[in-house]
Design goal:
Blueprint: E1 4-8, E2 12-15, H1 20-33, E3 36-39, H2 50-62, E4 71-77, H3 84-92, E5 97-100, H4 120-129, E6 132-135, H5 149-164, E7 170-172, H6 178-186, E8 191-195, H7 197-201, H8 225-235, E9 242-244, H9 253-256, H10 271-281, H11 288-300, E10 308-317, E11 322-324, E12 328-330, E13 338-343
Parallel strand pairs: 2-3, 3-4, 4-5, 5-6, 6-7, 7-8, 8-9
Antiparallel strand pairs: 1-10, 10-13, 11-12
Helix pairs in contact: 3-4, 6-8
The structure holds N-carbamoyl-L-aspartate (NCD) and zinc ion (ZN) (2 copies).
């Protein structure tokens, strides 16, 4: 049995770092685990301009502990009115991607896109300037069952978008279904996907085991076991189209343990350990490095990291809660439970 694993320092291609006091609390976790991270722009108000992204970047950097090497990669929140001029400014400011939130699909998505065709001139500018489009891939039609929203999105939005913008690099974020895994695997080299630890480790039973478990609720919601197995197969397939994106999404525990629970799982504390457990469960630890450290930078046309990290097979207990902002608490996914790997 393999008891330690050394790999190139990984990056997180999808994380929510929030802002203010919450940002101060969570940035150190991500910076300890990852060399770079794609900082999601769904703040309140959202990051919609290059100038806001630059200022947010500075706030993130100010929260990185002394001596830790960490680079946030910035994104803009795409709206119906984002202009091609803003894309030029974004490019000049070092912004790497825009995020498509269908309006109303998830946490802080009210300012999102109401009809993708409204953004076509802007998407053309992105295609030209080499900015990526990151997609929360769920339709918002209340008539569509919550568990079907990703699969329906593929036919209603993804296929037409790919046909109309063939050379725009698109990342189908946090995929949760066999349909999405198969769609991405079969697509050309301009389409990739991120996978979260929770969707590789859990199926939807986790949300209901012995009672309703808010800390396992995120969007897109966990699916059946058949989907989880397909996702794990995709992640460990060796295909360069699949890479690490935790979607670590901190919400104060009072907001999670509430009559209306916010969507999001906080995993930044132990992300790499959770992925190692998932890959180990199918004997694919040898595939973790490409997934965590190579495929993402290759797709974004960024250099790979050169430093290394080591994971040890070791039993330890994840804290049940950690401080979050001034007075709140944050409960990590798996909090209070045993872990099988530890980042050295
Ligand atoms: N994944 C989630 O359930 N929540 C994310 C938003 C998102 O990535 O959809 C959040 O910002 O809390
Ligand atoms: Zn999302
Ligand atoms: Zn997210």
């Amino acid at each position: 049995m393999q008891d330690s694993l050394t790999l190139t320092r990984p990056d997180d291609w999808h994380v929510h770092l929030r802002d203010g006091a919450a940002l101060q609390s969570v940035v150190p976790y991500t910076a300890r685990q990852f060399a770079r991270a794609i900082a999601m722009p769904n703040l309140r108000p959202p990051i919609t301009t290059a100038a806001q992204a630059q200022a947010y970047r500075e706030r993130i950097l100010a929260a990185v502990p002394e001596g830790v090497d960490f680079e946030p990669l910035m994104t803009l929140y795409l709206t119906d009115v984002t202009t091609p001029d803003e894309i030029r400014r974004a490019k000049d400011a070092g912004v790497v991607a825009l995020k498509l939130y269908p309006a109303g699909a998830t946490t802080n998505s009210d300012a999102g896109v109401t009809d993708i065709r409204k953004t076509y001139r802007t998407l053309e500018a992105m295609q030209r300037d080499g900015l990526l489009l990151l997609v929360h891939g769920e339709v918002t039609d209340p008539a569509v069952d919550v568990f079907d929203r990703e699969a329906v999105f593929i036919d209603q939005v993804m296929r037409p978008l790919r046909a109309d913008m063939p050379e725009l690099k698109v990342v189908f974020e946090h995929i949760t279904t066999a349909e999405a895994a198969q769609y991405v695997a079969a697509a050309d080299q301009y389409t990739a996907a991120t996978l979260t630890p929770q969707h590789l480790l859990y199926n939807r039973n986790a949300i209901f085991m012995g009672g309703l478990r808010p800390h396992y609720y995120c969007l897109p919601v966990l699916k059946r076991e058949t989907h989880r197995l397909e996702l794990l197969k995709a992640a460990t397939s060796g295909s360069p189209k699949f890479f690490l994106g935790t979607d670590s999404a901190p919400h104060a525990s009072v907001m999670k343990e509430n009559s209306v629970c916010g969507a999001g799982c906080f995993t930044a504390l132990s992300a790499l350990e959770l992925y190692a457990e998932a890959f180990d469960s199918v004997g694919a630890l040898d595939k973790l490095e490409a997934f965590a450290s190579f495929n993402g930078p290759d797709f974004y046309s960024l250099p790979r990291n050169t430093a290394q990290v080591t994971l040890q097979r070791k039993r330890w207990t994840l804290p049940e809660a950690v401080p979050f902002g001034e007075a709140a608490q944050l409960k990590p996914l798996r909090g209070g439970e045993e872990m099988g790997w530890q980042l050295g």
